[in-house]
TrEMBL record:
GO terms for molecular function: oxidoreductase activity; zinc ion binding. This is Enoyl reductase (ER) domain-containing protein. InterPro entries: ADH-like_C (IPR013149), ADH-like_N (IPR013154), ADH_Zn_CS (IPR002328), ER (IPR020843), GroES-like_sf (IPR011032), NAD(P)-bd_dom_sf (IPR036291), Zn_alcohol_dh (IPR050129). Residues 11-310 form the Enoyl reductase (ER) domain. It holds the Pfam family ADH_zinc_N. Its cofactor is Zn(2+). It comes from the Bacteria. The lineage of its organism: Bacteria, Bacillati, Bacillota, Clostridia, Eubacteriales. SMART domains: PKS_ER (SM00829). It comes from uncultured Eubacteriales bacterium. Belongs to the zinc-containing alcohol dehydrogenase family. Keywords: Metal-binding, Oxidoreductase, Zinc.
Amino acid sequence: MNETMKQAMLYEVEDIRIVEQPIPDPGPGEVLVKNKVSTTCGTDVKTFKRGYPLLKPPHPYGHEFSGVVAAVGPGVINFKEGDRVAVHNTAPCGHCYYCKHDQPSMCESLTFCRGSYAEYVRVPAPIVAQNMFHIPDSLSHKAASLMEPFSCAVYGIENCPIALGDVVVVNGAGPIGLMFARLAVLRGAKVLVTDMVESRLETARRLGVWKTLNLTGVEDSVAAVRSLTKGERGADIVIEATGLIQVWETSVRMARKGGFVLLFGGTKGGSVLHVDATLLHYSQITIKGVFHTTPRHVAAALELLNLGVISAEDFIQHEYPLERLEEAIREHASGSVIKNCIIYD
């Protein structure tokens, strides 16, 4: 095995460099994975465009991937060289206040695995123990690389009180929004997806949604959505998946009396949500924020991928070598694709 590998580093905003790094050795409980597929995501785009407050550049880049075990560290018994694996990017500590109160997505000591845009990735021991999985030959590495974002949608949808026949509006037909839409369809909802990119809405239709609504040129998105519900009363459930604060606010106004609003898309730091208190009180609307995912939902997401609930073909459009990562990220940012992927030898 070569002693060095290629790895993407983010040096500054919009400054990706592919550098040579030593291939890391796995420590106790750790696993070294030879990468097969890394996928682009909205978080990567945001980090590329505006940085990430918790990371000081230069830093490793990317967090969605799937590969093959290249080496295992001391004490690893459940994985061996050659195993095909799907790897999540975090694991909770299991010991803090939030973990003990069954809120592991709020863990105060999350372990992260960053740097998936690389030929090799060293997976920390807590992730190996909790959120790394064998994948069958029937599941492609492309599909397995979707486990991380899909687990977020699985966690989010379980927080929504969807009843059979409910009208569910999903605002945003990016990767997460489309995953939410597919899961809501499977829960028996009438799903309406809004976006401003017709190709993304076409994907939503392939995923079985009831209706799509292109908001390009629409002055009043709230009225447009309500007009598609019985008596213009609004949706039973509204899911926000854009991360734009103005869409957070319109999402609240799309819900019917007694409705439920899930605010999932991460907003820019310092964003402030303005809500009509009279509407919230007298219309008895429930608003909930949900962040990230949990180990239980990661495992569930992988099972659903094995069942073919979503396919890589619907979500991943183009393949790029690592050297063209910036091109893949910029194309994702343009909205012309759902996701792209980096392929390794």
